[in-house]
């Protein structure tokens, strides 16, 4: 799927730069849970929307990372991060809705802070499930819609429009969990929590593993 929206000549480089400057903060906020979720990952990992490669520091040196990243403005950063962490990087400039990998060809698919942005979430999860081998894992950390009538929900709704524009299609208030629950995985481990940080719209989150 062609996705011009993810290749905006102004917002693309700005968002790539932003990911770089918040990298240490994201590591501080997410590092521990990522270490737990990614531990025991296999030699090849597929990541949907890796951005500049924030998750590479949690992968073993020498890991083959297949990066499904439609935003070309992220690619130079991805390559740089891969060199830094000794990752064997393969970039595929595709959306998560149009992954070109074979059926049942992967054991481990990762997505962090991406399902908020994919245009067709159902199709993206369909692709994730299609490429996973039986009992393969889909590991995710996503920000989600806040509880109805809460202050966080009000903030998410208020900021949704400018946020969606600036961050190239990100929805502050997407209810992602029901999509994962109805994607047909065999078993799900999902935890809802608030990750308090200065990035208020992304405080409500879910993390977990979907087993094919
Ligand atoms: C907020 S960034 C998160 C980057 C990284 N996963 C992280 O945790 O730092 C969202 C990423 O999803 C990518 N993205 C947006 N739409 C996508 C789609 N349809 N398929 C795959 N990736 C997508 C963006 O280009 C961007 O790199």
Put the structure in a nutshell:
This protein has 212 residues and is of the alpha/beta class. The protein is built from 6 helices and 7 strands, in the order H-H-E-E-H-E-E-H-E-H-H-E-E. One of its GO terms (molecular function) is S-adenosylmethionine-dependent methyltransferase activity.
List the helices and strands and how they pair.
Elements: H1 11-21, H2 23-38, E1 44-48, E2 64-68, H3 75-85, E3 88-92, E4 106-112, H4 121-131, E5 132-143, H5 151-166, H6 177-181, E6 187-194, E7 204-211
Bound molecules: S-adenosylmethionine.
The site of S-adenosylmethionine has 21 residues, from loops.
CATH 2nd-level architecture:
3-Layer(aba) Sandwich
Q: Give me the CATH fold name.
A: Rossmann fold
Using only C-alpha atoms, the radius of gyration works out to 16 Å
Distance between the termini: 24 Å
Number of helices in the DSSP assignment: 6
Query: What is the number of domains?
Result: 1
* Strand count: 7
Q: Fraction of residues in helices?
A: 25-40%
Q: What string, H for helix and E for strand, traces the elements in order?
A: HHEEHEEHEHHEE
Structural class: alpha/beta
Q: What is the name of the CATH superfamily?
A: Vaccinia Virus protein VP39
Which consecutive residue ranges, at least 5 long each, have pLDDT under 50? none
């Amino acid at each position: 799927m062609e996705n011009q929206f993810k290749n905006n000549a102004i917002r693309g480089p700005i968002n790539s730069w932003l990911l770089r400057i918040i990298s240490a903060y994201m590591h501080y906020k997410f590092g521990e849970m990522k270490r737990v979720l990614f531990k025991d990952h296999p030699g090849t990992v597929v990541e949907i929307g890796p951005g500049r490669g924030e998750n590479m520091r949690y992968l073993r040196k020498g890991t083959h990372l297949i990066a499904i990243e439609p935003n070309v403005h992220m690619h130079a950063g991805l390559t740089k991060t891969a060199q830094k962490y000794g990752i064997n990087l393969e970039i595929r400039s595709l959306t998560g809705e149009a992954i070109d990998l074979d059926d049942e060809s992967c054991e481990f698919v990762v997505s962090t802070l991406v399902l908020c942005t994919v245009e067709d979430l159902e199709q993206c999860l369909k692709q994730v499930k299609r490429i996973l081998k039986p009992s393969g894992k889909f590991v995710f950390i996503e920000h989600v819609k806040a509880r109805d009538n809460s202050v966080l929900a009000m903030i998410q709704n208020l900021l949704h429009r400018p946020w969606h524009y600036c961050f190239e299609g990100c929805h502050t208030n997407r209810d992602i969990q029901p999509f994962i629950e109805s994607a047909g995985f065999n078993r799900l481990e999902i935890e809802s929590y608030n990750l308090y940080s200065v990035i208020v719209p992304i405080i409500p989150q879910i993390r977990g593993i979907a087993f094919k």
